[in-house]
Design a protein that fits this description.
With 390 residues, the protein is of the alpha+beta class. 38% of the residues lie in helices and 19% in strands. α3 (37-50) crosses α12 (318-341).
């Protein structure tokens, strides 16, 4: 029978040597007194897995695991004041960089089977989500007159269904503005909604050898140069495929090249969807299927908001909010790795719920995720005979 809790086995999946190098780089353990960066990472991951609502919940929850904390790499449960103080003062960038380190080492394990496209380009889905905050408590998170917010501009890797890059800004930052800082891979394709129909941005992408598939705005002004013939065997939802040039003077200055415009019929919502792309060779159906895959990023946003502790925060400073968001992203990465490891066909929501109920149960992690509804405890030895008392 295994003598380590599920939570300890999950934490053991993390490379502590990589984290230690980042701690030295960012000097986040300088002058620390007991509550080091690793202890804070474990505490915040516990906050996510257990969905703790306060620093008191984190402290008391870890304290309840007395005798098992050494398997987590920490000596004792942190106090409420220690958690609160370090969330306020310890640089969140160590957790941000650690997410990208884990994405490189564990991200391939988290990949799952997707619809494969007959293209060699790497596919990325681009969108943002707004996380609402109370302006009276989070006065640094400017959004509206009486409302605060931060915005997560996210570039999602289609293959792994995990963020390849995240840019967190205040709620006022427009979607297209938040996309200018996103590093992109030459030859890749970016799929995004109409909020990224910024011709200056599209021109930058095109000049860097990036393909894009964007839903264009209704007020776009263009001249049709050539209408591509739709094959007789075409998919019936493809309504038009044409080559266009922008007509508006300012728009043409921002994007002087020709574009391809494809109109498709969305039978689910009973509407037409108009797309523009700088990819002239792929079939119209491939373009439409690429845009259809954009729904994956909406599912990702729903998962992190519903399953993890990211809609309310245990600290009010900007640094504390950033730490909670980045540790939530580390948590979702771990969960998807566990889901990929399991033979059982987990829904992510069920996996999160089951782990939350069994965090401190001592059971083999791999056996448990493979066969969650079987009895994994060893039966007592049968050859033991109880002695006669009298």
């Amino acid at each position: 029978m295994i003598n380590i809790t599920l939570f300890s086995q999950i934490i053991s999946k993390l490379d502590r040597n990589q984290f230690s190098k980042l701690v030295k780089l960012h000097k986040t353990d300088k002058h620390q007194k007991g509550y080091n960066s690793w202890t804070q990472l474990v505490s915040m991951l516990f906050c996510q897995f257990a969905k703790s609502q306060s620093v008191r919940d984190i402290s008391n929850g870890l304290r309840s695991a007395t005798g098992n904390l050494n398997h987590l790499g920490i000596n004792k449960a942190p106090s409420k004041s220690s958690i609160s103080y370090e969330n306020k003062h310890r640089d969140y960038k160590v957790f941000k960089d650690y997410y990208y380190q884990l994405l490189g080492s564990l991200g391939q394990q988290a990949a799952f089977k997707q619809v494969k496209f007959r293209i060699k380009s790497k596919i990325f889905l681009l969108d943002s989500t707004t996380i609402s905050l109370c302006l009276s408590l989070f006065d640094w998170a400017k959004y509206k007159t009486s409302k605060g917010a931060v915005k997560m501009h996210t570039l999602l890797d289609y293959d792994g269904n995990l963020p390849a890059y995240v840019n967190i800004t205040d709620g006022k930052t427009a979607d297209n503005r938040g996309a200018y800082d996103i590093p992109l891979l030459k030859g890749s394709v970016i799929v995004a909604d109409r909020f990224y129909n910024d011709f200056s941005l599209l021109n930058i992408w095109d000049s860097k050898g990036i393909f894009f598939v964007i839903r264009h705005k209704e007020n776009i002004q263009y001249t049709s140069i050539k209408e591509n013939k739709l094959p007789d065997s075409r998919h019936q939802h493809i309504l038009k495929d044409e080559i266009i040039e922008l007509k508006n003077k300012s728009s043409k200055e921002k994007y002087p090249k020709r574009l391809r415009r494809i109109v498709i019929w969305d039978d689910v919502n009973k509407q037409t969807i108009e797309l523009i792309t700088n990819q002239m060779k792929w079939t119209a159906n491939t373009i439409s299927e690429l845009y259809k895959s954009r729904w994956q990023i909406e599912i990702f946003f729903r998962e992190i908001k519903q399953l993890l502790h990211i809609k309310s925060f245990i600290g009010t400073t900007e640094n504390a909010v950033m730490i909670q968001i980045w540790t939530a992203l580390i948590t979702i990465l771990i969960l998807k790795v566990l889901k990929a490891m399991a033979k059982y066909k987990w829904h992510l929501s069920n996996l999160v719920g089951f782990i939350r109920l069994n965090l401190f149960v001592k059971i083999d992690l791999q056996k448990w995720i493979d066969r969650p509804f079987e009895d994994h405890f060893d039966p007592p030895p049968q050859n033991i005979i109880q002695g006669v008392l009298f």
